[in-house]
Design a protein that fits this description.
The chain is an alpha+beta fold. It is built from 8 helices and 5 strands; from the N terminus they run ααβαββαβααβαα. A 5-stranded mixed β-sheet has the order 2-3-5-1-4. This is DUF4349 domain-containing protein.
Length: 278
């Protein structure tokens, strides 16, 4: 009877150990196979950032910077200028620079115009009416959409980082921690303002195109000679008058020396006359 009791106890002990090992193995396997749950709010925030990036890429329209440069000859500068002014008015543009001049064989005028990008092509067509040929006609279009999206994404990231630092600042208690956090916030704010300035500059260049227009009229060869010869005579007369004036002014400025020279010459002449009499 006693032997039977010991055998039953031994059997239960062996059965219990094997069962506990199997359970421990199952737990280990489940711990390896099942990943730990993500922290609360992490997957949701990542999903929001991804949705924001996708929406920013889809919502931001194409950003293109357009520029133009025109140079041509005209028979009448005034008529051409009036035509350009009408094109400026019709396309809601504005002239930001206007200069004119004349060289040996031509008179010319140069304009720099800011045009709304949506009216750029129509403005070029309006200015080109009546032009037989262009000596220079350069039209360029630069796509800055990727640069705009990159700046927008970086700006969003910096603003989110600033919000996190502000939340940490509200919980900080030590003066050293507060000062360090405020230092970081100040640096982030500078970067945010820099990114915002770059975005505004890009937006202004995209919204308004720049067009430079140079037009000129050739002066006939005979007319050029007459103008040049007459201007030379007039310049020579003015130069002679100014030279005479400068000479008189220089004499007035050295009047003490002139008086001394006259007195000295008078005494020498008088002495010479005495010698002749002796």
């Amino acid at each position: 009877m006693r032997q039977l009791f010991f055998l039953s106890v031994l059997f239960l002990a062996l059965f219990g150990c094997s069962k506990s090992e199997a359970e421990s193995n199952d737990v280990a396997v489940s711990a390896v196979m099942v990943p730990p749950p993500p922290p609360a709010g992490a997957s949701e925030s990542n999903r929001k950032d991804q949705d924001l990036n996708k929406s920013s890429k889809t919502k931001i329209p194409q950003k293109i910077i357009k520029q133009g440069s025109l140079r041509f000859e005209t028979d009448n500068l005034e008529n051409t200028y009036n035509q350009i002014q009408k094109a400026v008015s019709d396309n809601k543009a504005r002239i930001i620079n206007d200069s004119e001049g004349k060289d040996y064989n031509s008179v010319y005028r140069s304009l720099t115009v800011k045009v709304p990008s949506q009216n750029f092509d129509r403005f070029i067509n309006n200015v080109s009416k009546g032009v037989s040929y262009f000596e220079v006609k350069n039209i360029s279009a630069e796509d800055v959409t990727e640069q705009f999206i990159d700046l927008t994404s970086r700006l969003h990231t910096k603003k989110k980082l600033e919000e996190r630092y502000l939340q940490i600042l509200q919980k900080a208690t030590k003066v050293s921690e507060i000062l360090e956090i405020e230092k970081q916030i100040s640096a982030i704010r500078e970067e945010i303002e820099s990114k915002e300035g770059q975005l505004k500059y890009l937006e202004s260049r995209v919204s308004e195109s720049t067009v430079t227009i140079d037009f000129y009229k050739t002066i006939a060869e005979k007319e050029g000679i007459k103008i040049s010869y007459g201007s030379k005579i007039w310049n020579a007369l003015k130069s002679g008058f100014y030279s005479l004036s400068d000479f008189l002014i220089s004499l007035i400025s050295v009047w003490p020396f002139v008086i001394l020279f006259c007195v000295f010459a008078y005494f020498i002449r008088r002495r010479l006359k005495r010698r002749k009499k002796e």
